[in-house]
Each structure stands twice: as structure tokens, then as C-alpha cells.
Amino acid sequence: MMEITGTLKSIIYQNPQNMYKILVIDLTSPVPDYDDDEIKVTGTFGDLEEGQEYQFTGQLVTHPRYGLQFQADACQAVLPSGDGSVEKYLSSDKFPGIGEKTAAKIVQQLGPDSLKSLQADPSQVAQLDLTQKQKDSLLAGLKSIDSFDDLYLKLAPFGVNKKVAARLYQKFHDQTLQKLQVNPYEPLDVTGYSFKMADQLARHFGIKMTSLERAEGSIIAVLLQALGADGETYLDLEDLLKRANELTDCPFDRLADGVNSLQEKGKVVAVNNRASLKQPYEVESNIVFEIERLLKTKDSDYEDAEISEAIENAEARLEISYDPEQKQSIKNAVTKPVSILTGGPGSGKTTIINGILLALKELTGFDEEEAEDNILLAAPTGRAAKRMSEVTGYQARTIHRLLGLGIDGGDADLKELEGEILIIDEMSMVDIYLFEKLLEAIKNVKHVVFVGDKDQLPSVGAGNVFADLIASRTIPTTKLTVVHRQKDGSTIIPLAHAVNQGANPEMLTQKTKSYSFIPCGPRNVASAVEQITRAALKSGFPADDIQVLGAMYRGESGITHLNDVLQNVINPVSETSKVVEAHQEQFRLHDRVLQLQNNPEKGIYNGEIGKVIAVEPEMEDEDDDIKLIVNFDGKEVALTQLDLNNLTRAYAITIHKSQGSEFPLVILCLTMQNYIMLKRNLLYTAITRASSKLVMVGEERAFAQALAVKGNERRTNLVWLLKDHFKPEEGKKADKGQENSAPEEKIPAVEEKAEDYILTGARISRAEISPMVGMADLVQGCKNLAEIVRTKGPGA
């Protein structure tokens, strides 16, 4: 390790998400083996000021294109001393209220090294002849000096790494340590900051394990876990208290106090013995009101005869014949402001979408240019949108691109949608947050159609939007039940429907024209996949048509290991090959890759699959540290080393990531190592990704397990909020014209009117509702639950 010192000239790059920066430093002291007056410094830094002198600790590294750089592990401001520099520093903007005379007084009392002395012992501030306001300013300024590196060094012993420390710093800035000392459980919503870390800090700071802060923290931690890991937007109060007790061993009445306190603070909403974090509850509540807004739009006034004729003409154009339920779905789409179309593979969803567009074009009289302007098509992923474009002939985009969403879903540039019709495909993939943004953007669209398969996996994000909309029976819904598509006698579609109904496991192991099963244990899965892939390539399958699917990344049969094997089969490295390494993965020219997170700045989104077309290319802009250029469905994107943190190889991908895509050949791998993931909807979703051939590899009992376990229903507020908000009379109106609507889901009786508890900023500001609503019942309810659990035990 070595040290360099210099003045910050400029910040040429910074990542707001992790505080990584590239700096240009004017050196104020010589650096061994380096001749220039300035140097580039990289690392994770807090707030820095141009013109300030800093000392960096780290090492010189040689960049393949930019030469010597300094990779810093730590940074601290160089404090001035002597020659009037201390007075100048103390009277700067860093210390509001301290002028030159006051600064001179401080130096006179403490000497020329007063800054270093005060930083080492801030208690000396109390002895200075200053006003209280000036003392506070001086203390605040001292805390801001080197606050990030100081914070990291103090938090590291408690398991907090630099990335998490950076996120904490971004939340609280130079108040971070002070905030943690008062309540280390407050920032549990910060990614990577765990309840265990908070507990360790609490012990260090002398906070009691039975404190109210800890009880509140455990409630938040349990609700965050349910939301993030399971997509659940509420927990039953009894279940919540039991989970929090298992986490903390806190008395149940203390945990009940925690729930009540969080309700008072507006961080938790509890209704009908259900507890939710405020944000997801408000999101689901807002969805209800947005749905109501859309449903209030007047139906189109086309005559039945006009609609029937338009459908008949669409049938003639497409050379097909729609069955009654398909015709009803088209009628709903062109007359109702909002409608839903759901069905499994082969049920004709795509054919119906084409029929809707043809019928609407005829009814409106649009020419081709007008149709293109008024038809809005979108899907959650790039591949699903591309497929939608191919089958309809109209442009389809990802929902993010359609809305113009910024980083992390920010809606600063949210576009207002206008047109005759908006059709969203693959709706089962849409979570509550994206759905709320979508609804808010629909300002002047006459017809909105949500399309999908409700039996597929729910969204990776929170909620179960599509299934909840159907179960609520508030929107005109057509459920397609007849299978129309079986390409060339394909047996995959019948298999998918049989699996969805809980078929006999023996059906999976049959060898048929379209699918087969290869039994093997976890250790042999990779070898079997390699042999199948080589055979498929030899038989004429293009490499891009072969997709391996799995449930998890880890393990002998996991995605990571399978990608290692498949990369060497499909894209072996040569002696002259350029490679780039990131997070223990190697990227090569022509690799198939998958984007893991949204990056709106570069126009790529979670789940998009691309191909590497250049490795460490020569770029005109020397400031860009470009490692790869990837072609994502015709869009060439230059990626830096940091960007590679959100990129992985895609020869094998998870079943979740495959949603919205179809592949000619799917190799599906399941073993008992995936036990926790083995559910029927996972197996069903995987099977429906195969358009031509399916090879299942793994343990028979793993496939049988997946078939047997229907899967836990996600606990979400949306379905009961919708049911309760739309009165039975309105529900009957919504059902009118539905020939095949989803059966009504039985849910616990609603004891209170949901509208009394739907908290939104707008309603609170209009004084329509108190943010403290529901407190009286909650207090007694929590106490009663605590008493039951305490007297009868956790199994009560």
C-alpha cells in the first residue's frame, strides 16, 4: 500500500448508486515511478470538494488502455496548518457562522494545528469562547471531514462492507453515525443492511435487547423479508408477531408495542388483523383508485352488428374462426375501457390480439399511419415485446421504455399515454410498483387490455397483480379454456395443461415426439446437459435456439456451473481470444448474455438477452472505460467494468428470467437441491417456454415434487381492496358480458370498509382521512394476540 497527496481538480465520473468515482488529482507530492503532475484516482468516496487537498491510500495499477492509475482504498482530507490557512479554512462555507475574526480566535486559543487537534478531540469545542450556534456549526463541519471513510472504518467490525456503508452514507450523509447510535434499526430498508448488523451495533451502543427500537426493527425486518423474498404485501398480525419473536426472542407484548408504535409513526398500516409496510399498501391502494378512474370511462357506442361484422372480417383476413369466448374477448377489448384476457398456451391469445387490432382498425376507420399512432403495445421484457411486434406487425416496447421510466423506476420523465388502445402482454410478470406507474400514465387511452397467463409464476417483484385483478371480478374478463394451437402434433402444450391440473407424475417421464425425460442426480446434470447440447448442435439446432433453464444459481446443477460448462461447449476460448472478467465470470466475444438490472441511461432493462459483439474495443472517448459492446435485439450498448456487475452469461438462465420468452429447444434442469423452489407454477412456466422441443433433466422426485406442490398463494392486499372498494352491485356490472371469468376467490370477510383505511398522500392532504386510522382496534388486537401466543405457546 502507498499514499499519494493532491488537490481534487475534477470528478470525471460518479455512480450515484454506489458512490464509485473517477477523479483527476493535481499531485502536491511526488509519486514513485510516475512523472505527470496529475493522476486519475478511482474508488468509493463520500462527498468531495474540488480544490480541497486529499490524501489517498491504495496502489498504482496499470489500465490496459489508460496506463497508470491510482486505485484508492481510503481517502482523507488534508487539513491546513499554519500561515493563515487554518483561519481561511475555518471561515469557509464548511463552517457557516464562523467568520475570519472567530476563526482567528479559535487558532489563538488552540494553536496553528487547531483543526487536527479539534478533529482528534471534538470535546474541546465546548471550551472555546464561541456562541452555541458557532459551536454547533464547528462540530457539524468537523463531523463532515472524512465522514465516509471514518464511517466505514467504524462500521466494518460489525459486518458492514463498503457498499453497504456507502448506501447508509447516501441516506444520512454526515449524520450517519449519529443516527445509528440513536437507533441502529432505523435504516433496515437500506439494501444489504441486515437486522443482525443492527443488533450488533445496538449491543455496541448499549441499546437494550428489549428496547422499543429493537421491537420496531424486528417488525420492519420481517415485513421487508416477506415483501422482498416472497412478494407478499401483508402478513397476518399473529404470523408477524411469531416471526418477530423467533428473530428476537422479544416478549410478544413488547412486539405488539412495536407494531402500535410503527402505526403511530405512519410506517406500518394494520387493517383487519393484517399488517403492511406503508409504501406497498399505498401503492396497492392507489392501484384501486386508478382502476376506478379507468372504469368510469364511457364504453364505446359501436352497434353489436358493427362489431360482429368487424370480427367476421378479421376472421376472413386471418383465415381462422373464433370460438364464442374469443369473440367475447374481442368485443370487450373494443367496447370496454378496461378488459382482461387470460389463457394458457395454445388458447389463442396472440390470435385474439391480432383480431382486436383488425376489428378496431375497421371500426375506427384508421388508415395505416393513424393505426400506428393509436395502437400502443407493450410487455415487461424486451424479448416479449419483440415477439409481440413480430406477431402483430406493430411496434411493441417494454413497459419501461413506453413510460420513459428513469433509474430505479423514477417517474421524473413519466410519459402520458394517449391512443385508441393499449395492450399489455405477459401481465403475470408485472409487479405492483410498475403497474401503479403504468396506470398513472394512462391519461387518454380509450381501451386498455391486460393479457397473460394467470397460472404462470407471479412477478419477481412484490404483489400478484394479474391474478388479483382476475380474482376481484372488477374488470370484464375472458378466460380462454379451449386449446387451439398444437404445432405439428406437438405434445408440449397438452403436457403444460396437464401439469397445470396436477397430472400424474408418470406423464413427465414418457418419451414423446416433443418432449423427453433424462433421469440423473445433481452431480451428473451438467454432464447430461453438455451431451444434450452437443447432440442438438450436431443435429442442426442453432446455438441461439437452445436454452437451458434452472431454478437456482448455486449448486452442482445450478445456473452458474451450467453456464461454465455451456460456454465452453458453445463458445470455447482460443489462444487469441480477448476475455473480460467480472464477479468470477468470464465474458468472451459472441457470448450470449443477460441484463440483470434496469439501466435506463443505456436503454437496457432487466431480463434482456444480448450477444457480445466486441471485447475491449477501441473507443474515441478515452474517458469511457468500455469493456464490452453488446447487441440487445439490434441496439448496440457499450458497457463499462461497473456495468458488468449487472451482466451474466445466458446459456443457462433461471425460469423466472425466461418468462416472456419462447425457445425452440428448452433443456429444463430440476433436482432436489432446488427443493424450496419446486412448485407447480414453476414447472408449468418452464414447460411453456418450449416452442418445439423440451428435454427434462434431473431427479424424478424433484419433478414429482414440483407437480405436487401447488404453491403458496401470495398474501396481497390488492384483491380484497378491489373487492371491498367496488360494491357488489358494481361487481355484477363488471361481470356483465363475461362468458368465462375467473372463479371468485374466497377471502376473509372484510370487517371494515377498505376505503376508510386506504392511505394516500392526496387523501391525507385533503383531510379526507387521518394517517392514524385504525389505531384503536390495532392496539387491542395486538395485545389480544400477544396474550394468546404467550398463554398457549407459539403453536396457538
From TrEMBL:
Residues 335-481 form the AAA+ ATPase domain. Belongs to the RecD family. RecD2 subfamily. The gene is recD2. It catalyses: ATP + H2O = ADP + phosphate + H(+). The lineage of its organism: Bacteria, Bacillati, Bacillota, Bacilli, Lactobacillales. DNA-dependent ATPase and ATP-dependent 5'-3' DNA helicase. Has no activity on blunt DNA or DNA with 3'-overhangs, requires at least 10 bases of 5'-ssDNA for helicase activity. Its EC number is 5.6.2.3. This is ATP-dependent RecD2 DNA helicase. Keywords: ATP-binding, DNA-binding, Helicase, Hydrolase, Isomerase, Nucleotide-binding. It comes from Lactobacillus equicursoris DSM 19284 = JCM 14600 = CIP 110162.
